[in-house]
Amino acid sequence: xxxxxxxxxxxxxxxxxxxxxxxxxxxxxxxxxxxxxxxxxxxxxxxxxxxxxxxxxxxxxxxxxxxxxxxxxxxxxxxxxxxxxxxxxxxxxxxxxxxxxxxxxxxxxxxxxxxxxxxxxxxxxxxxxxxxxxxxxxxxxxxxxxxxxxxxxxxxxxxxxxxxxxxxxxxxxxxxxxxxxxxxxxxxxxxxxxxxxxxxxxxxxxxxxxxxxxxxxxxxxxxxxxxxxxxxxxxxxxxxxxxxxxxxxxxxx
Length: 253
Ligand SMILES: [Zn+2]
Description:
The protein is mainly α. The protein folds into two domains: 2-37 and 188-250, no CATH class; 41-167, Helix Hairpins, CATH 1.10.287. The protein is 75% helix and 5% strand. It has six helices and four strands; from the N terminus they run αααααββαββ. A four-stranded mixed beta sheet has the order 2-1-4-3. Strand 1 and strand 2 form a beta hairpin. Helix 2 (16-38) packs antiparallel against helix 4 and helix 3 (41-96) packs antiparallel against helix 4. Mean pLDDT is 91; it is low at 1-11.
């Protein structure tokens, strides 16, 4: 008996309630298609790939921060080495330009030059250590760049696949929306408005079939006397379910 109403589509339906149940079926179909479009597997996979990209970007930023700290330290050391070298040259010039000075002064100058050279060598050694610390970070950055490139390739294919699937899904939705628009335009305005208010309030279902003694909207049995009363209303009379308030459509039973 449910099929009768379904098969009636487009075959010169006159009863507005039969038309209304068609509109309801199309609205449910639209909701199903919208849900399926939102849940396209490519969309989910793309979200995961993009999350992966953000994670790699965060890792890159972290490694680059650590690398920058080392570079700063290296820069400071290079400046120290340059200052010590300049001082070293100054002292050497003084040493070679001071032939008449006392032996004790020359000794002190020589000692200072040696001390400076030792200090500079220490800093240069520390600078080498800092440069070595950078090596694993550079390797990590290269690895992350590879990982990112792979993820970007995957994300790129997913974007293309999603665009294609989404276009197909959208085309289906547009077809059903069109059919719904045509059917809804043939409904009396008051009935359509009543249906829209109920549909908005009752989880997308404003009209339901009376299947046997059962309301197909709330799936509750109606008392037999009530069903009898409803079935004897003249065709086209708008009746609602006592339990859920939805418009009940009596199909030929
Ligand atoms: Zn009901």
